[in-house]
Amino acid sequence: MTTVLPDTGVGPLLRDWREQRRISQLELALRADSSARHISFIETGRSRPSEDMVLRLAEQLDIPVRERNALLVIAGYAPRYPQTPLDDPAMASLRESLDRLLAAYEPYPALVVDGTYGVVAANRGVALLLEGVPEKLLTPPLNAMRLTFHPEGIAPRIVNLPEWRADLLAQMDRQIALVRSPELRALYDEVAAYPAPARADAERTGGAVPVADGADGAGRGRDRAAAFALPMLLEHGGRVLSFVSSIATFNTPMDVTVAELAIETFLPADRETAAYLHAHVSPGA
Question: Mean pLDDT across the chain, nearest whole number?
């Protein structure tokens, strides 16, 4: 007769992650150098996984570092990954490297955010785009999603706000499914409930949208950008600037704080936008 071990809770959690990733027990077993039978026993609580097995399964299921710590604790082991505050002296070299990276990207906008889109650092390109945003929204702690979606933030100046808004909300929704963060869910509910500025309403009803000087060239650039990525069209100084964004994270992070950092860069999608930024963003000291 098989002895069923007391359910520590780690088995059902690992099963949930496996099902979310749409991976079979056999496929997971092959990836983790185990057997489907052993995976089944772990998921049902008939076998207690070793610390190494928890980490191997978490790696193969691409479980976030913070959640790996939680799985280890539930399984009866100590957390493996520290969570070091960014202002800790041990993080000085990381902060300096991020600052150099952001400065090197100027005059184009770039910023670093944490796991709930709190702005950790930003360069002069971002400061240019935030001109005109009320001081109350620029008081730390800054949040990139609030600055984007708030009716007094940059939302009224985003020409294609409905499309950009839908894309960002979908991005947040995917992240919530991955990290299961109550803080991120609360932020999503908050920004999704912000009323749409008048510009978004006008665009839905076919209202006129201001066009940048040199509209023909800018239009061609936006068409090219739209062919491979959704651009953000942002009005600034009487022009419509066009950007495509990319997000980078750290490979193989060994700290929860570092694992949740993301570097977002905005690349000009046309020559007019690039020229405008070069003319209006002051070079770094």
Answer: 87
Omega within 30 of 0 (cis) for the link into 107: yes
- The whole-model pTM stands at 0.81
Which of the pair, 221 or 197, is modelled with greater confidence?
197
Contact (CB, 8 A) for 119 and 261: no
Single-letter residue type at 99? D
Between CA 196 and CA 18 the distance in angstroms is 38
106-151 pLDDT, tens per residue? 999 999 999 999 999 999 999 999 999 999 999 999 999 999 999 9
Q: What is the pLDDT of residue 225?
A: 46
Query: What does the pLDDT read at residue 172?
Result: 94
On the question of pLDDT at 264 being above 80, the answer is yes
3-state SS of the chain? CCCCCCCCCHHHHHHHHHHHHCCCHHHHHHHCCCCHHHHHHHHHCCCCCCHHHHHHHHHHCCCCHHHHHHHHHHCCCCCCCCCCCCCCHHHHHHHHHHHHHHHHHCCCCEEEECCCCEEEEECHHHHHHCCCCCHHHCCCCCEHHHHHHCCCCCHHHECCHHHHHHHHHHHHHHHHHHHCCHHHHHHHHHHHCCCCCHHHHHHHCCCCCCCCCCHHHHHHHHHHHHHHCCCEEEEECCEEEEEEEEEECCCCCCCHHHHCCEEEEEEECCHHHHHHHHHHCCCCC
Tokens 């704080």 belong to: 257
Going edge to edge, which strands form the sheet with 239-248? 119-122, 110-113, 262-268, 239-248, 232-236
Residue 8 backbone phi and psi in degrees, to 5: -80, -15
158-201 pLDDT, tens digit each:
999 999 999 999 999 988 888 878 999 999 999 999 998 765 44
Tokens at 184, concatenated? 């991120």
